[in-house]
Protein: Purine nucleoside phosphorylase
Amino acid sequence: MSAPDDPRVVAAAAVLRARGVEGPFALALVAGTGLGGLAEAIEAPRIVPYGEIPHFPAAGVSGHAGRLVAGHLAGRPVLLFQGRAHAYEHGDAAAMRVPLGVVRALGAPPLLLTNAAGSMLPAAGPGSLALITDHINLSGLNPLIGEPSDARFVPMRDAYDPALRTALAAAAGRSGVVLHEGVYAWFSGPSFETPAEVRMAHRLGADLVGMSTAPEVILARFLGLRVAALSLVTNHAEGFSDGTPSHGETQRVAALAAQDVARLLAALLADPGFAPSP
Ligand code: HPA
Structure:
């Protein structure tokens, strides 16, 4: 069963079409902390601030611009969400529901989410990239709480699309970018995790910790979008090194790793075999 049409999404998509933002797109991207600079690589950009799109959230975190940018990357049309709304801002795990609904309304291209994360993988230190293979929801939240339709019972097997993951791993190989892999544990934040929480997440099978992405993957699957997610490791998770995470460090390190993400994306999009969803 697929998600019903949402009048808020219809209104938002109508405004975007009137501003010249129209599919088909080869890829939709959500730029996490430090990755907003990807927008500068987009050619012939059409930029619409979230504040000018009905029902869009404000991206209220420093380092998140809050703009939709449509244009070309490596010669292919892409839709970039420069900044996201997080559940920890207002307690709304469905804060990205309208933006992701717009992805479906504008042709349902594959969706690539990016985030900053703490790592529990010894080989993946600050500055590394990791492909998320699955998640563990430790937040107690879910973006589909309150959704009345039976589409809310979303299966989560292979939620992180295996074919997209294979394409990303191949693109990493072609572009010389080392891509680790791991399970992401979603904590609500905004406080960082305690060392005991990180030890618990590790014992449960997590490799990465962060405060975003998992609710967007749930929403994407609800909407029938193919989705993959990439973590920029900005720090060792609390207790996994002598240092302690901070928002400033997260922004600085993510901005450095952004160049690797740009190379990886260019290699992905340059592959003629990488086709948008039907
Ligand atoms: N924990 C949660 N979120 C994060 C971290 C972390 O260690 N680093 C960057 N985002």
Observations:
- Helices lie at 7-18, 87-90, 97-105, 162-175, 195-204, 214-222, 247-270.
- The chain has a mean pLDDT of 93.
- The pocket of hypoxanthine is lined by residues 116-118, 192-193, 209-211, 234-235, 237, 245, 250 (CB under 6 Å).
